[in-house]
Amino acid sequence: MDLSLDAITLPSWNPNDAMAWDEAFGKVENYLRACRVASRVHRARLTALILQRALERRASNPDVPLATLAIDEARDLIDRWMAGLLPPREKEQPYTMAEGFLSLYLCDAPMRWPNAFLNPQQEPPGFADTLHARLVKTGPELQVSSMVPRAMDRGLIQGWAGSAMDTFDRLPILRTLFLWTLFVIFLVVLFRYTRS
Length: 196
Prior knowledge:
Layout: H1 18-34, H2 40-58, H3 66-85, H4 97-106, H5 109-112, H6 127-133, H7 156-170, H8 172-195
Helix pairs in contact: 1-2, 1-3, 2-3, 7-8
């Protein structure tokens, strides 16, 4: 993509389209700012180029707002730029835009190479190698397996506690005596603790 100002040809000024142009310009500029394009000159050039391409798209889609076309064009440009930068995967889908942005941020590309974003003609030395080194490599895909739920084996405690609960259910007076005994023991321990 040619980033020189000579490559930018915008249409003549039309006051009726001023609001749409202003909205599209603001959205694209904010989108590029969110992509951490820090240089205002570089961001302005990219915004003008993206708006020019969105205007060319508008000829075939006159019903779609210019701001929507401009953001779509920005995403398409970024996708194509990242596809040229990121290495192909073996037998898998290409890297997503999120994975590309993650590697850009992990190598701190916006701060180290502020004019490299969407600028393949002037790619700094070491940029692609650093970007490739920062790609996040995920593990193997999750395999679905069938596991049949089984009852948990709690050993002797389960049998002893189960038989005690059955006894308490059959004789509620025992359960009441047991709970009152625990309460009295707690009060005795509390009394001795406070008196010593």
